[in-house]
């Protein structure tokens, strides 16, 4: 795999020596920083102080995601295809730190601006099961999850612009159908390991760590059985320069993402999410086209967001930050470059984007809002989301070749 292909993929699984870094694209770096600065000033002048802070957190999230090529899609695919669990163990490490930080924040109800923070705790029902399964298929066809789509767009992966567009469309259609899935089909009340069991946040934290340890052990057991290739190193600087150019260790990025999610919770009083902004953007367009968006169950009791500026939306601020952060990171590494698209990956991106968008609305979130932030909030629905998304990944392994997409095999590189 060439160096130029690296920014559009997550870490590969070979034993090759890390390639050299490209020269930094200084004009692009300067342009990205300038746009980020102007947007920060605009948000500070027109919105609550929360918005520019969230833009900054988003910048750091995108910067981290790109530098580590930290993936949710590839982690599931590596485990399902060849039994490589390195990335999934990084997930468990990230979740362990996030739970450790979330527990006191939620227990004591502290936030930076005086409000009461709340976790992502959602119902368990048919919509969750179907939606997460759809999302698992979609992220393997679309080439990235919700966070992966954003940072890949920031890195210049052309086909991911198509995925993002249809992600927004699918999320909007899901919002239009929300009444059927959320109200007409059976479900049970949200279940928290902390507040629904009597364990409290301390007990829920201990149980969560045990679950993460068991999952990590299972991945090691699978690797011993299947003997998959290890992940290859990506180009990187040495020492402190590595912060600005080159790849980061997965576990360092996992820790950074957990801390940034906790900062998001403290700042806006709810954890990191991605797809609610997609639904807002698409719903605004649908309303402009004449659809009666206010009648959709998804927007019941929250029509103010429909008529406010998108810059007043906290998730939008985070998403813009992620894209800009990834753009700056890719340009600093000399890796920003628009890539070629084919009929196969275009079709896969369209279908994958639709499935992810629709599935995220059914499942109360994506790999970030439901899986990462849900589990960090001690919600059982986050674990169910992960299981069903992994099941969707297994099915997608049989679908990917239909679109000319590769399926990793033992001793092959991951793409």
UniProtKB/TrEMBL annotation:
Q: Where is this region: Disordered?
A: 1-23
Polar residues bias locations = 1-17
Q: InterPro entries annotated for this entry? A: Sulf_transp_TsuA/YedE
Keywords linked to the UniProt accession? Cell inner membrane, Cell membrane, Membrane, Transmembrane, Transmembrane helix, Transport
Subcellular location(s) per record: Cell inner membrane
Q: How does it sit in the membrane?
A: Multi-pass membrane protein
Q: Which superkingdom heads the taxonomic lineage of this protein's source? A: Bacteria
The membrane-spanning stretches of this chain are: 28-45, 51-72, 93-112, 124-146, 158-182, 202-222, 243-263, 317-336, 348-372, 378-399
Q: Which family does it belong to?
A: Belongs to the TsuA/YedE (TC 9.B.102) family.
The record's section on PANTHER family has: INNER MEMBRANE PROTEIN YEDE, SULPHUR TRANSPORT DOMAIN-CONTAINING PROTEIN
Which named protein is this?
Answer: Membrane protein
Its taxonomic placement starts with: Bacteria, Bacillati, Bacillota, Bacilli, Bacillales
């Amino acid at each position: 795999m060439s160096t130029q292909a690296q920014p559009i993929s997550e870490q590969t699984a070979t034993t090759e020596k890390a390639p050299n870094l490209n020269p930094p694209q200084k004009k692009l770096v300067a342009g990205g920083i300038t746009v980020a600065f102007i947007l920060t000033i605009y948000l500070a002048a027109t919105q609550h102080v929360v918005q520019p802070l969230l833009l900054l957190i988003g910048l750091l999230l995108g910067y981290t995601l790109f530098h580590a090529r930290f993936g949710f899609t590839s982690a599931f695919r590596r485990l399902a295809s060849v039994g490589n669990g390195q990335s999934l163990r990084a997930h468990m490490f990230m979740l362990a730190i996030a739970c450790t930080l979330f527990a006191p924040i939620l227990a004591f109800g502290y936030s930076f601006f005086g409000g009461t923070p709340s976790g992502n705790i959602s119902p368990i029902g048919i919509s969750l099961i179907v939606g997460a399964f759809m999302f698992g298929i979609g992220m393997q066809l679309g080439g990235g999850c919700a966070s992966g789509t954003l940072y890949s767009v920031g890195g210049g992966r052309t086909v991911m612009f198509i995925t993002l567009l249809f992600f927004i469309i699918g999320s909007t259609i899901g919002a239009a159908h929300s009444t059927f899935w959320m109200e007409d089909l059976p479900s049970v009340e949200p279940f928290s390991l902390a507040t629904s069991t009597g364990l409290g946040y301390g007990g829920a934290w201990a149980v969560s760590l045990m679950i993460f340890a068991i999952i990590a052990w299972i991945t090691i057991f699978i690797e011993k059985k299947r003997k998959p290739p290890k992940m290859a190193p990506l180009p990187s600087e040495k020492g402190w320069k590595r912060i600005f150019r080159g790849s980061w260790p997965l576990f360092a990025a996992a820790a950074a993402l957990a801390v940034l999610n906790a900062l998001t919770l403290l700042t806006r009083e709810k954890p990191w999410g991605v797809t609610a902004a997609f639904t807002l953007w698409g719903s605004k367009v649908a309303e402009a086209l004449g659809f009666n968006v206010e009648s959709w169950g998804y927007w019941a009791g929250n029509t103010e967001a429909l008529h406010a500026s998108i810059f007043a939306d906290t998730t939008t601020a985070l998403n813009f930050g992620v894209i800009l952060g990834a753009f700056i990171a890719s340009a600093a590494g000399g890796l920003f470059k628009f890539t070629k698209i084919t009929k196969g990956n275009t079709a896969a991106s369209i279908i994958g984007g639709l499935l992810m968008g629709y599935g995220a609305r059914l499942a109360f979130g994506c790999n970030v809002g439901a899986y990462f932030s849900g589990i960090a909030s001690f919600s059982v629905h986050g674990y169910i989301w992960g299981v069903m998304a992994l099941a969707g990944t297994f099915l997608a392994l049989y679908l990917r070749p239909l679109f000319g997409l590769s399926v990793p095999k033992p001793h092959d590189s991951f793409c």
